Automatic annotation (TrEMBL):
<dbReference type="GO" id="GO:0004672">
    <property type="term" value="F:protein kinase activity"/>
</dbReference>
<dbReference type="InterPro" id="IPR011009">
    <property type="entry name" value="Kinase-like_dom_sf"/>
</dbReference>
<dbReference type="InterPro" id="IPR050167">
    <property type="entry name" value="Ser_Thr_protein_kinase"/>
</dbReference>
<dbReference type="GO" id="GO:0005524">
    <property type="term" value="F:ATP binding"/>
</dbReference>
<dbReference type="Pfam" id="PF07714">
    <property type="entry name" value="PK_Tyr_Ser-Thr"/>
</dbReference>
<dbReference type="GO" id="GO:0005737">
    <property type="term" value="C:cytoplasm"/>
</dbReference>
<dbReference type="InterPro" id="IPR000719">
    <property type="entry name" value="Prot_kinase_dom"/>
</dbReference>
<dbReference type="GO" id="GO:0007165">
    <property type="term" value="P:signal transduction"/>
</dbReference>
<feature type="domain" description="Protein kinase">
    <location>
        <begin position="1"/>
        <end position="136"/>
    </location>
</feature>
<dbReference type="InterPro" id="IPR001245">
    <property type="entry name" value="Ser-Thr/Tyr_kinase_cat_dom"/>
</dbReference>
<protein>
    <recommendedName>
        <fullName>Protein kinase domain-containing protein</fullName>
    </recommendedName>
</protein>
Length: 136
């Protein structure tokens, strides 16, 4: 089981990595738990880029949809982390509000309407606005 702070820290790190990739019109292509690494400091990294590809040539209409497909994979990853989290803190505890924000983000990431899902930049902004201290 994972501590709440570790779940939040991992979600933030993975979202930041994927936002960076997609700003370069590149998709990871295989985002899931086994390709998510956490170093000794607790920082999340994304590994195994064997399925990654650039999507520069897809055009302005299609490119955002490629990102939104990977957003769903991010939602699945975070949902799995939340399911494996230690019992969540009670309401009013420092991390309760950020965890609620994270659950909302997961719902948005899993939306059936691909075009209606948030971008990774949107996800990063929401996690930043949810401001929480996740230092180990």
């Amino acid at each position: 089981d994972f501590a709440a702070a570790a779940v939040l820290r991992t979600a933030r790190g993975v979202a930041a990595a994927l936002a960076h990739l997609h700003r370069s019109n590149t998709t990871h292509g295989d985002l899931y738990a086994h390709n998510t690494l956490v170093d000794k400091s607790g920082a999340a990294k994304v590994g195994d880029f064997g399925a990654a590809f650039g999507y520069d040539g897809l055009g302005a209409a299609a490119a955002p949809l490629v990102e939104r497909l990977e957003v769903r994979a991010f939602g699945c990853l975070v949902e799995e982390l939340l399911e494996r989290m230690e019992p969540p803190p009670p309401a009013g505890v420092l991390l309760a509000a950020p965890l609620a924000t994270l659950r909302t983000i997961v719902e948005l990431c899993m939306a059936p309407d691909v075009a209606g899902r948030p971008s990774f930049d949107d996800i990063c902004a929401a996690l930043h606005l949810s401001s929480f201290d996740v230092r180990p």
